[in-house]
Automatic annotation (TrEMBL):
Pfam families: AroM
Superkingdom: Bacteria
Protein name listed in UniProt: AroM protein
Organism name: Enterobacter roggenkampii
InterPro entries in the cross-refs: Uncharacterised_AroM (IPR010843)
Amino acid sequence: MKATLAIHTIGVVPVSEVLPLLTEHVSEQQITHLSLLGKMSREEVMEDYAVEAGGGSPGDVIK
């Protein structure tokens, strides 16, 4: 069984910027990318996850 590498990101850095660095050491066929927010627009992310002013203490669960 070949080793694989999974990249889990929040969608800030495009995979196209990171992939060339990784493929120097690992075959592209062995890399899987999972993006938490990659398919959401900035507006959707802000609507669902933005912290509102006065909205809680550090460690509070946000939505």
